[in-house]
Amino acid sequence: MSLDQPHTNGAPRDAGVAVAQRIRANRMQMSPAMEKIAGLLLDHPTAPLDLSITELAQQAGTSAATVTRFCRVIGYAGYVPLRVGVAADMGRGDVTSSWHTDLGRSFDPDDPAERVLEALLDTHLRSLRETATSADLEQVTRIAARIATCEHLDIYGIGGSAVMATELAARLYRIGINVHAWSEVHDGLTSAAIHGGGCVAIGISNTGRTLETEQMLAQARSSGAFTVALSNRGDSPLARLADEHLLTATPDEYLQPDELSAKHSQLFVLDLLYVLVAQQNFPRTTTKLAASAMAVGPHRRPPGRPGRGSGGSRAAKEPARRPA
């Protein structure tokens, strides 16, 4: 078996072979995109210890999927085993160091469930509190007013941020906003290109460094749309290109960009934005919500209705008789 064949359990075939040695031994079978990753890791051997897979891909000018394929070519099952290999090469890590890099420093692999629960609760609560404290309510109200009166709203998000975009779009659509959520860059660019001055575009990215989201928001702005960025860094590329930036908080204990406490902060800001948009045109909001509630009402079981197999009076089980 060659170095490029990982074990099925995720461990490399020969843990004694250094990462740099693996890269050099397998360069002949690498694609041009993988060559970029190889060059980056040979120049900066500790990069995987400091960067997420998405950040490494961006620095190499490629994709996270290509990084995963690169890991397999040099004998690792994925990015986490590669990190373990790099840590071992540097003489400053083991499986625990990789755990801390990927899942955070608030708890260890052998912590009891109670400790994990407490750490997670503390992290999520602090994320929400810090986000609320830093919120500029005048700014959010100003953005809500633009959305409430816009011709069309685009919301862009990739990966986990796509879930946030879809959630906000669904809620705003129910209250009469002409809105679409885009998670595929070609579709998003197509929509952004036909925007005008009466349109609004929102880009969601926790790090603010998701290339596809940047591209879609930049296209919308160049087309004349009013643009908004939602991220946890005010100095991120996404924040810099937008007309307005909404800030969310992420505790330092977590290094993984997709940590759920970051998502909760995003949802908190988006929920605030939704309510403020709804307030802008209260009659329209209540009319739309009442209409949608009536449409889905027949598909909901009435409260207190006995389920199948449950007890109940004879009158509840027998159909009512029509009067003669």
Automatic annotation (TrEMBL):
The keyword Transcription regulation applies. Residues 17-93 form the HTH rpiR-type domain. Residues 292-324 are annotated as: Disordered. Keywords: DNA-binding, Transcription, Transcription regulation. Coiled coil: none annotated. CDD domains: SIS_RpiR. Residues 143-283 form the SIS domain. One of its GO terms (molecular function) is carbohydrate derivative binding. One of its GO terms (biological process) is carbohydrate derivative metabolic process. Residues 315-324 have a biased composition (Basic and acidic residues). It comes from the Bacteria. This is RpiR family transcriptional regulator.
